[in-house]
Amino acid sequence: MAKTKVQKQQALILLEKRLKGAKSTVFATFTRMSISDQEALRMSLKEAGVFFSVFKKTLLEKVLKDMNVSESGIEEWEGNLGVATSDDEIAPAKVFVKSLKAYDGLKVRLGMLDGRIIMDAEIKELASLPSREELMSQLLGVISAPITQFAVVLEANPRNVISVLSQIKKE
């Protein structure tokens, strides 16, 4: 059933709000994907905190034109067009790049990072970056390493004294 003009207008407003409010966006097309594969992709995006929806190319072109983004080339893309938006800079890219290996018909076309257009190669680079939580744990490891090593050095002297005394006792 075709959408009414009011429904299309609401979809435009929703899409524009999502694109303007998101820190990162990934546009992908998918063809020859089964419904179960599409649902699995949606679930993995949802688990990562990514909003995903399928839009008509004409609606997306209209919104991007309103946002002064003209270099998209959407009219040449084949297949259904999915838009993934998130407040996390890396999450959509990570999920899509991971899913590229699992689904043949999925293609990452382009993305937006803080309002700037990024191409598929940059999306793949972005996906290889560690997440914020991974970076925080690495930082904590680096900060705690000298303290841990200092504690080991302080324990070494009493341990050595005890070892010498036990050797003397054995003799």
Automatic annotation (TrEMBL):
| Name of this protein | Large ribosomal subunit protein uL10
Q: Which CDD domains match?
A: Ribosomal_L10
Report a single Gene Ontology molecular function.
large ribosomal subunit rRNA binding
State whether keyword rRNA-binding applies: yes
Q: What is the lineage of its organism?
A: Bacteria, Candidatus Jacksoniibacteriota
Q: Record's superkingdom?
A: Bacteria
Per UniProt, subunit arrangement is: Part of the ribosomal stalk of the 50S ribosomal subunit. The N-terminus interacts with L11 and the large rRNA to form the base of the stalk. The C-terminus forms an elongated spine to which L12 dimers bind in a sequential fashion forming a multimeric L10(L12)X complex.
Query: Organism, per UniProt?
Result: Candidatus Jacksonbacteria bacterium RIFCSPLOWO2_02_FULL_44_20
What GO biological process terms does the UniProt entry carry, in alphabetical order? translation
Q: Give the matching NCBIfam families.
A: PRK00099.1-1
Q: Name one Pfam family in it.
A: Ribosomal_L10
Q: Which family does it belong to?
A: Belongs to the universal ribosomal protein uL10 family.
Q: Name one GO cellular component term.
A: ribonucleoprotein complex
User: Which keywords has UniProt assigned to this entry?
Assistant: Ribonucleoprotein, Ribosomal protein, RNA-binding, rRNA-binding
Supply the InterPro entries for this chain: Ribosomal_uL10, Ribosomal_uL10-like_sf, Ribosomal_uL10_bac, Ribosomal_uL10_bac_type
Write out the transmembrane intervals. none
What's the stated role of this polypeptide?
Forms part of the ribosomal stalk, playing a central role in the interaction of the ribosome with GTP-bound translation factors.
- The gene designation is rplJ
